[in-house]
Structure formats: C-alpha cells, structure tokens
C-alpha cells in the first residue's frame, strides 16, 4: 500500500501533485516516483500559467531530479505534454513540482541556489551531485523566478550610480545601488550615457520621477543623464569621492605652499611644514599629541593650508 501522505511530505510536494506509484529502479540505482498534476492544475502554459488547449504529448515521460532520499538518488517521473498557449504558442505544460524548463524539482533548485550563496560552486556541485554547468543554469532559473515575483525597482528613492572596473581596468560596469536597502539594483557592461540611459528606460518615467537623490562621482555623462531623466532629483557627490577629492586638494595646497616657501627661502616655514603632511591627512580623532601640535603650528603659520584642512573635515 502506498502511504501517499508520507511520500508527499518526504518530497515536499503539495496536493496539486498526485503520487501514483513508487519504485526502485535498479539500473538507475534510484527511487522513482510516478507523478501527475491534479486535474485542476492540468493543461496550463508552462510560461504564463494560464489555461490552454492541449497540443500533443511532447517527448513523452521524463524525469525530474528531486532531493536525495537519504543517500539514494530520487526522481519524479511524469508526462510532459505540450499546450497551445494563445500568447506563447506551443509550450510544455506547467507541472506543480518544477519550474518551467527545469530538469530538477523546485526544492532541488532552491537548495542549490541557497548553497551557492554560502559556498563555492564546485562544492555545491559535489554535494548535490550535479555538474558545474547545471549549478549555473539552476541559479539563473531561481533568480529569474525571484525577479518575476518582485520588482527590483520598486520604492527606489535614493540611489547611487558608480562605475567599477574589472579585467584589470580594461572593462567597466555601470552599477546602480539602492541607498535605503543597500542592495545592488542594476548593473550593465559599459560606462557611458547609453549604458545609463538603459537603466532609466527600464525604470520608466513614473518611477524616475519618484527619485529624490542620486549620488555619483563627478562624471559628466552621469550628470547629464540624471538631469535629463530625473530632473527633480538632487545630484550629490558620494562620500567616498568627496573624501578622495578633498584629500587630493589638501595635498595640492600643501605642496604649493612648500614650493613657495622654497622659492622665497623661508627655512622656518619649511621646517614647520615638514612632518605635518600625515597630521593633515589623518582623521583628527587618531592624531598623536605631536601631530596635534604640528597642526596648531600649521594653523598659526599658514592660514591657506589650515583652511584647506578644515574643509576636508
Ligand atoms: Zn503562456
């Protein structure tokens, strides 16, 4: 007798899946569970889930790898008929236990996707007994599924736009982050107007108008696209670049004073400036007593330099 409820629990399938029989396939050295969708979930397009007239039997019965039963491999086996969807044309019918186009059950996919966020792809492949390539296609499927359920652009108010280099600075990505959630929202190869325009095309007019703040580096191509696509947003410099620019500017001021002092031959000023470079570049909370002294000397000796210092803080 088949304890259907026990099997359903063990396999993690709900009542939309009918378990017909269970056998041990000696040749495949695996448990094979014969399944079919319940009548109400039959004949739906695998792409959109809408009801559609039947087309043919497709390629007949097929296997979906399920999570192992202890140490034994396990497959769900069922028909994979095709339907004729008014929107998608001929497509394999939806099955309740797996994603469209998958060779693995939903739970198997989910477990692989969870594991790759915690360990290497090769380790996941080994423990789940699938190829490296299969791990990749499972990730793509789970991500696409999650994306379809949640709009990554929803509720964007404060964003950051930046460019990052890869392949040792030979190639660039334009990335968009959500400052409120800290999430990466979008990324694409390239760093120019056209690349960033693609992001705003996807975002659409309505959602672009809800953006209040955009942080970016000083790149002109970013500024011009932001100005055009979300004119109501405030464009500001991001903290990282602010500090970098201010530090560079401060060092420039210090160098020019140093050069002047040398040209006019002011040995006392040169002596005072010596050793204050690190005090100027350091976070004030981390200054040693001696460096603080240097700084106060800078304050009295040269107003321009000290003003530069105050600006960076
Ligand atoms: Zn469809």
What does this structure look like?
The protein has 4 domains: about 100 residues, no CATH class; about 55 residues; about 80 residues, Nucleotidyltransferase, domain 5 (2-Layer Sandwich), CATH 3.30.420; about 70 residues, no CATH class. The chain has about 325 residues and is of the alpha/beta class. A hairpin with a 2-residue loop joins strand 4 and strand 5. The chain is built from 11 helices and 12 strands. Helices cover about 40% and strands about 25% of the residues. The structure holds zinc ion. The site of zinc ion has 7 residues, from loops.
Unreliable runs: none
Oligomer: single chain
Which strand order do you get reading across the main beta sheet? 10-9-8-11-12
**Helix and strand succession?**
HEEEEEEEHHHEEEHEHEHHHHH
State which percent range the strand residues make up: 15-25%
The biggest sheet, with number of strands, parallel, antiparallel or mixed sense and barrel status, is: 5 strands, mixed
Mean pLDDT comes to 84
Number of separate helices: 11
Gross geometry: elongated
| N-to-C span | 77 Å
Estimate nothing, just give the exact number of structural domains.
Answer: 4
Using the CA coordinates, give the radius of gyration.
31 Å
The residue fraction in helices comes out at 40-55%
Number of strands: 12
């Amino acid at each position: 007798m088949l304890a259907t409820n026990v099997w359903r629990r063990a396999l993690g399938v709900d009542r939309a899946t009918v378990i017909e029989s269970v056998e041990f396939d000696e040749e495949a050295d695996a448990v094979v569970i014969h399944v079919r969708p319940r009548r109400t979930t039959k004949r739906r397009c695998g792409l959109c889930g809408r009801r559609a007239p039947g087309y043919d039997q497709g390629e007949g019965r097929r296997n979906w790898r399920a999570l192992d039963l202890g140490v034994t491999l396990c497959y769900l086996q069922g028909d994979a008929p095709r339907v004729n969807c008014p929107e998608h044309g001929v497509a394999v019918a939806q099955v309740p236990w797996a994603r469209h186009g998958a060779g693995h059950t939903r739970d198997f996919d989910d477990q692989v996707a969870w594991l790759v966020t915690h360990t290497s792809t090769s380790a996941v492949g080994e423990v789940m007994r699938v190829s490296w390539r299969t791990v990749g296609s499972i990730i793509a499927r789970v991500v696409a599924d999650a994306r379809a359920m949640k709009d990554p652009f929803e509720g964007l108010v404060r964003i950051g736009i930046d460019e990052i280099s890869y392949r040792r600075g030979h190639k660039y990505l334009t990335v968009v982050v959500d400052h409120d959630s800290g999430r990466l929202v979008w990324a694409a190869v390239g760093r120019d107007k056209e690349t960033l325009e693609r992001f705003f095309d996807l975002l659409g007019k309505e959602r672009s108008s809800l953006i209040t703040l955009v942080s970016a580096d000083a790149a002109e191509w970013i500024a011009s696209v932001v100005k055009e696509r979300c004119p109501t947003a405030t464009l500001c410099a991001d903290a990282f670049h602010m500090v970098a620019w201010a530090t560079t500017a401060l060092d420039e001021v210090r160098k020019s004073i140093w050069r002047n002092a040398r040209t006019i031959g002011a040995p006392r000023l040169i002596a005072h400036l010596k050793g204050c470079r690190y005090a100027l570049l350091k976070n004030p909370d981390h200054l040693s007593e001696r460096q603080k002294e240097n700084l106060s000397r800078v304050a009295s000796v040269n107003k321009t330099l000290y003003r530069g210092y105050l600006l960076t803080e």
